[in-house]
Amino acid sequence: MTLHVFRLAVGEWHKIRRRLIPWILLGIIVLVSQGILWGFYAAYHASDDPFGALTPPYEYRDGEVSIVVTCEDMLAGLGEEKLVSISGRFAGEEREAIDAEIGEWLGTCNDYLTPDEARAVFTLPYSIAVVSDGAFLAFFAIPILILAASVLGMEYGWGTMRATLARGVGRWQLLSGKLIMLMAAAMSMVIVVAVLTGISSLLTGIVPPGEEGSLVVGDGRAWLDAIKGLAKLVFALVPYVALGVFLAVVTQSSAQGIALSMGYYVLELILAPVLGGITDWLERIVDVALLGQNVEEWMSTASATEAQQTLGTVVEQPDTLRAFFVVLAYTAALVAATLWIFHRRDVTGAKGE
What we know:
Layout (H helix, E strand, L loop, with lengths): L1 H16 L3 H26 L11 E5 L2 E5 L1 H5 L4 H8 L4 H17 L6 H6 L5 H6 L6 H21 L1 H7 L4 H33 L16 H32 L2 H23 L3 H10 L1 H9 L6 H6 L8 H25 L9
Antiparallel strand pairs: 1-2
């Protein structure tokens, strides 16, 4: 039975290879990932202070007195004395206000990247780690939702689903084969993007202006973390495969399945911060109940930048274990519901979509 399902998955793989939509979606993901890498590369060479515009200096001016403190000064241990000299010019409520202002500015230094950190963004193996960063998950999740909903939906529209079942293929075997194929497609997309990112990272040493540093700056642990990040990304995409398939089976339509998938994804992005900002207990419910929140938590890491380490910023530890089980529960529930509906509902002829 397992061999039969595997053969169906292989057959589905050969079918999807001949369609245009997976190649279009892959092309979009590749273009976005390459744009991010080369965008970082261009920003790095645009000025002597890469990404410094994100963390402007703190400036104090009073007549002829002008004191400027940069995040780089703070990392070098040269800025504390300057800040004390500014704060010491005030007393009482004015001092409290200026101290609060300085404290707020110091918070922006958490996002400061040193030149070495900025360069690492497009250098192996950290460039591959950027691919699996939770901030860019949408660039994978949305195409995967579209692909999953379209693969099942088009079968209904063309009427090929009914013809396949009429040949004696078991329903749960057929659906299982499609799910396995889609998960393999998601993993293949991640691997292709990672490989092309690695090649582009090596090309940054050839494209002018030439790089003086090494093209590979990470040690064995950094490579292991990059591979681990890619594996986490693949797992994070599995519930979106299940969601797209579920909505396609419910609607028996590719257009409606894609529309509902996109609607759910966008609705979560809107509702999560709104509901979380009302009360603490609603925020806890959102953290546990919403798929997107848990996928984001699963993809997040507790690594700190050099600026955060130097400034002693507390980096919140993500609850990845809880997120893992919530994502797993969503996947299991969606797959089970899809199999139940697909098994009980009659499959009609072509709908002309």
